[in-house]
Specification:
Largest sheet: 6 strands, parallel
Low-confidence stretches: none
Distance between the termini: 23 Å
Number of helices: 9
Structural class: alpha/beta
Strand order of the largest sheet: 3-2-1-4-5-6
Strand content: 15-25%
Mean pLDDT: 97
CATH architecture: 3-Layer(aba) Sandwich
Radius of gyration: 15 Å
Helix content: 40-55%
């Protein structure tokens, strides 16, 4: 089970025109928003990463607006863990459990998950908040990550898991977010 005080959310490369090409784009964007809103309501640390933003564009507005007050970490490596600034920020959170959301599942999300596992972190993929340009690539990446030890979860499942109880102070906010 995830521990609220030991979990960080990583938002991977939800940028520009590429984001518009994702399989099941509409539910993906809705779940990405729910996850960021939920993380904010639960006061989770959120790391926001962009792949070569000067070439791929900025994070889409629907997600960037939820990350107000934060700045993205720019990277050139496919894995977020290939960027020193990301590693420094993640280490500063003190979290040993990481939730991954974003695109593309079979490239940047996959490589990040593998590197974080190698670092001894517990990694969970929020499967309904990640996608690729093709369903086949997304599904293959999810299967490969799961085989390697990445946990699978969904937006609603993980937000309730993190709260643990209906008496959690953020319960009503989370209920509104998932509806």
């Amino acid at each position: 089970m995830l521990d609220l005080k030991n979990t960080a959310l990583v938002v991977v490369d939800v940028q520009g025109k590429l984001a518009q090409l994702m399989t099941d784009r509409e539910p993906l964007f809705a779940n990405l928003q729910r996850m960021v809103r939920g993380a904010n309501a639960l006061e989770l640390p959120v790391l926001w990463v962009e792949q070569l933003p000067d070439k791929l564009g900025a994070t889409i507005g629907e997600i960037a607006q939820e990350l107000g007050g934060q700045s993205p970490i720019s990277k050139a490596s496919f894995s977020c863990a290939g960027e020193a600034a990301f590693n420094t920020e993640l280490e500063a959170t003190g979290c040993r459990q990481v939730l991954l959301i974003g695109i593309e599942t079979h490239v940047c999300v996959y490589q990040t998950a593998m590197h974080l596992l190698d670092e001894g972190l517990e990694v969970e993929l929020v499967a309904d908040a990640t996608s690729s340009r093709t369903a086949a690539n997304r599904d293959l990446a999810i299967a490969k990550m799961q085989h390697a030890g990445v946990g699978l979860t969904s937006t609603e499942m993980v937000l309730f898991e993190l709260m643990g109880t209906a008496t959690h102070p953020a319960f009503r906010d989370i209920q509104k977010i998932i509806k």
